[in-house]
Design goal:
alpha+beta; two-stranded parallel sheet; 2 strands
Amino acid sequence: MLKHEAEHLDRFYVDFGDIMDKKFDAIAITGAPLEQLAFEEMDYWDELVKVINWASSNVFAELFICWGAAAGLYVDFGVE
């Protein structure tokens, strides 16, 4: 990672653990199916499931777009 990338991440992003005890007005979850993998085969799947489950009780409005919509349907309702 380049130095300016690390500085940008440090300035504008937080770890999920830093916000888990907070409430939010909205969350948008999106993504693109870059590979033809099952959801569980994605490297970050476990973390995304944690975020989706957390959002259901800590976020007033959830917006799922594109691949994120498919992932949300899968997590919340088992729709493949």
